[in-house]
Amino acid sequence: MNEIKAFFKDTIKSTLGLYKIMIPISIFVKVAEYFNWISVLGDWLSPLMELIGLPGECGIVWATTMVTNIYGGMMAFYSLSVSSSLTTAQVSVLCSLMLMAHALPLELQVARKAGCRLGVMFLIRFGFGILTGLLMFYMLHFLGWLQQPNIIQWKPDTIVSPTLFQWLLSELKKYIMVFFVVTALLLLMRILKKTGILDWFSEALKPVLGILGINKEVIPMTVIGMSLGILYGGALIIKETEEKEIPKMDVFYAFVLMGLCHSLIEDSLLMISMGANWSMVFIFRMSFAFLITLIFVRLIQQFPEEKVIKWFTK
Fold first, then answer.
1. What residues make up the domain containing 136?
2. 0.70 cut: is pTM over it?
3. Phi/psi at 104 (nearest 5 deg)?
4. Does a structural domain hold residue 304?
5. Domain-embedded: residue 158
6. CA distance 242 to 198
7. Is residue 96 a contact partner of residue 136, using CB atoms and an 8 Å limit?
8. Tens digits of per-residue pLDDT, 41-53?
């Protein structure tokens, strides 16, 4: 009975911790949409879009994605007349930007709560997003790959702005879903710990993720973040850091990898529905994320540890 009480106490604590981040961010995003701040950001991004072979109008797509989420970016994409004239290569490049940097107000706050510096994480997501787009654009351009007209696999029949009531209802549904997902994940983690599977799983992945500087204690949570998303992986890492003494830089490295490569299944399939090539959103994305994290970690480790901790963590 005491264990059940402790479990529900952990669930409530973790969920409330996420709500404290999610609710203010949701209100901020709604205000940003109302005052058209996202369109202004899209105009600022226009020159960057042209740098990587995209029409300047695509800036509004990435701006919407960064401020809201993948779904918001998709709606912006479908509303553009230029979306029907892009090549598969261009859509793949645009989708790589969307995958690297989306829902930043929410996901960066989760990283900050875990101990990472918000500004640093923003630069990593935004900067490596641009680098990914550049590398993919030039690679596809010089090799002549995916230059055929893009074929959109799926799009909604109608694109309408939700009323305030509809928005509140969708937010409420989202918070309820978060509660049940967190409950299920915490229950799964307890079962895996009790059975010893968690230790086996961590040891099995240690040769791969260990070279990226990711601590054994957060390997399972990192994998959850990579598969389901930063919100859930981050929530579990926050819980672990509150209960155990995990080196700050190990947590930071985990968030770097999750930031560059997370929600692998759902988000990737959504990008494919927009017309992006599967090898770009799966293979190129994962390979790039692991390579960049490896190089980044190796560079950081060349500096004195006390300075690194001060620069990258709170």
1. 2-153+163-312
2. yes
3. -65, -40
4. yes
5. no
6. 19
7. yes
8. 999 999 999 999 9
